[in-house]
């Protein structure tokens, strides 16, 4: 479905400064005043400074969230100068529950809707990416060493995704909110002369939704995602008086927002063939949301003070250009049967690779398994030559070929019977052919011997491993006993008359010994588990060998 990006303007409360704009919510217009004149802009929605967070969600963001539940991708993106209220709009204020932003409200709406839906099962994952100084970071990577390299890649449909980004499962609204909050604490924030908690990066919180139908006649899976994007402030350097690290950040922010603007201009110009998505991480990542398979809402935040008019005009111009950007959202569904067929095809591919590897190891690397129809004709000639001359045995390379040869033989026999040729097919020759391709079957005695050898090797290994595990248990037990004696001795020393200094030393030593004792005890338990396991393996081997031989002798 072709639609254009929906654009709403949100006006934050004014400071004490003179108001520099006139807002008309009904007409959906904003007039930026300039010495008695004004520049007027019209949008899909204009939300004045008294509009509540709840109303912002209902009037602007709810539609995108709803469409995600119907299988369309959705993006809600907040744009605007520093301090204009982007983070307030997306994440919300911290003072009260009613101040929560679009992210928390979208999460609540999605989980509420799926609870009501008895006809589908949902799998929901969350991801949280940050673009800071052109680098991508995983805000949900809580490991100590957050060095995982994140790369933007394209799938076979040309859609972009971040390789390596964590996407934990979220089974409840609480779990999703938990991740949102944890990710937020990882964001890059700095004090700034226009905003003392300025977010210095672009952040994208995404809910990835998989919707499985319970109806077997409609066995499909629908995939959709909701991107909630809080862009960094579109401020100009001189206005923010920044230096050092912040200057570097601002340069990167300006660069990515300039490219975002270029992409938006290119998308608005329908004669343009090339859209420069790849110029920055931001536009590359938002490729789908800008002119792709997505329903997108831009909330452009403005600061109504007269002193901010330059920035307000820049923001409103960007927002106007964004209204020209067309997107084409489609429901992303996949037939379950197709999905299992794909699974089988993957399995076949994997097995073929495995077979090729075995062939190479066995020195049979030039074997072709699939037999083309033209090769069958040649094989038929081989069979006919063999019938007349038993020394000309057809070459055999694989089981598939044996099957084809049998079929050809059968066809020849049947043909001969139908045409009642005097000399029917000569059975001894077929017998000989069968013999020539048969694998030699070992005798009963040989098999028993082979089996006995195999079991003996297994038993030897099991015994060795058991002995190793037992030695480890003894070692660990000795260590545990040594530490236990140390603990007892130190504890006892604390009950005697000793100097304070010595007491402190002993208390600290006791703490360390107890720690070492816990580690050693843990090791002892692990070693015991391994020893018991090996004991069980030994017993199992004895039992199965005995029963196999019993079967052999009695039947
Ligand atoms: N509509 C609003 N109602 C009440 N307070 C608001 C509103 N918009 C913004 N604020 C307040 O203004 C301050 C700056 O807002 P916010 O941090 O959301 O700006 P921002 O656009 O995200 O800035 P930056 O780009 O620097 O991160 C915050 O203290 C926020 O609570």
TrEMBL record:
GO terms for biological process: microtubule-based movement. GO terms for molecular function: ATP binding; microtubule binding; microtubule motor activity. The keyword Membrane does not apply. It holds the Pfam family Kinesin. SUPFAM superfamilies: P-loop containing nucleoside triphosphate hydrolases. One of its GO terms (cellular component) is microtubule. ATP binds at residues 80-87. Residues 4-325 form the Kinesin motor domain. The keyword Transmembrane does not apply. InterPro entries: KIF6/9_C (IPR056524), Kinesin-like_fam (IPR027640), Kinesin_motor_CS (IPR019821), Kinesin_motor_dom (IPR001752), Kinesin_motor_dom_sf (IPR036961), P-loop_NTPase (IPR027417). Keywords: ATP-binding, Coiled coil, Microtubule, Motor protein, Nucleotide-binding. Belongs to the TRAFAC class myosin-kinesin ATPase superfamily. Kinesin family. This is Kinesin-like protein. It comes from Thraustotheca clavata.
């Amino acid at each position: 479905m072709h639609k254009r990006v929906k654009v709403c303007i949100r006006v934050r409360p004014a400071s004490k400064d003179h108001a520099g704009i006139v807002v008309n919510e009904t007409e959906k217009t904003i007039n930026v005043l300039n010495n008695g004149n004004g520049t007027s802009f019209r949008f899909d929605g204009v939300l004045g400074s008294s509009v509540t967070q709840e109303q912002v969600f209902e009037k602007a963001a709810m539609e995108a969230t709803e469409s995600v539940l119907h299988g369309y991708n959705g993006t809600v993106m907040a744009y605007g100068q520093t301090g204009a209220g982007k983070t307030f709009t997306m994440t919300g204020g911290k003072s009260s529950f009613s101040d929560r932003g679009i992210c928390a409200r979208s999460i609540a709406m999605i989980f509420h809707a799926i609870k009501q839906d008895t006809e589908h099962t949902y799998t929901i994952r969350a991801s949280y990416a940050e673009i800071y100084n052109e680098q991508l970071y995983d805000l949900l990577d809580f490991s100590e060493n957050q060095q995982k390299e994140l790369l933007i890649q394209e799938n076979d449909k040309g859609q972009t995704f971040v390789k390596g980004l964590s996407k934990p499962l979220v089974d409840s609204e609480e779990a999703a909110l938990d991740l949102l909050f944890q990710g937020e604490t990882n964001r890059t924030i700095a004090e700034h002369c226009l905003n003392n908690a300025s977010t210095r990066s672009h952040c994208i919180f995404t809910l990835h939704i998989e919707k499985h139908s319970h109806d077997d006649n409609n066995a499909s899976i629908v995939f959709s995602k909701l991107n909630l994007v809080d862009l960094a402030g579109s401020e100009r350097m001189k206005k923010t008086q920044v230096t050092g690290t912040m200057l570097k950040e601002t340069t990167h922010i300006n660069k990515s927002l300039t490219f975002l603007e270029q992409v938006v201009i290119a998308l608005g110009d329908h004669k343009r063939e090339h859209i420069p998505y790849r110029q920055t991480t931001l536009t590359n990542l938002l490729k789908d949301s800008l002119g792709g398979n997505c329903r997108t809402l831009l909330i452009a935040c403005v600061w109504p003070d007269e002193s901010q008019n330059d920035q307000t005009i820049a923001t409103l111009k960007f927002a106007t250009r964004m209204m020209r950007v067309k997107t084409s959202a489609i429901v992303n569904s996949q037939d379950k049967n197709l999905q299992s067929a794909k699974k089988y095809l993957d399995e076949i591919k994997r097995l073929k690779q495995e077979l090729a590897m075995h062939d190479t190891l066995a020195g049979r690397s030039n074997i072709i398994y699939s037999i083309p129809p033209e090769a069958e004709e040649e094989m038929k000639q081989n069979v006919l030559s063999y019938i007349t001359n038993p020394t000309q045995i057809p070459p055999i390379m694989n089981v598939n070929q044996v099957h084809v040869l049998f079929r050809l033989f059968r066809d020849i026999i049947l043909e001969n019977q139908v045409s009642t040729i005097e000399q029917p097919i000569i059975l001894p020759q077929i017998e000989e052919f069968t013999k020539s391709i048969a694998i030699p079957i070992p005798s009963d005695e040989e098999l028993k011997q082979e089996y006995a050898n195999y079991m003996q090797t297994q038993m030897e290994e099991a015994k060795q491993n058991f002995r190793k595990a037992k030695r480890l248990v003894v070692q660990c037990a000795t260590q545990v006993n040594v530490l236990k004696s140390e603990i007892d001795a130190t504890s006892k020393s604390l009950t005697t008359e000793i100097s304070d200094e010595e007491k402190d030393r002993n208390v600290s030593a006791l703490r360390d010994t107890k720690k070492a004792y816990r580690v050693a005890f843990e090791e002892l338990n692990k070693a015991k588990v391994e020893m018991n396991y090996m004991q069980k393996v030994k017993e199992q081997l004895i039992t199965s060998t005995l029963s196999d031989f019993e079967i052999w002798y009695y039947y």
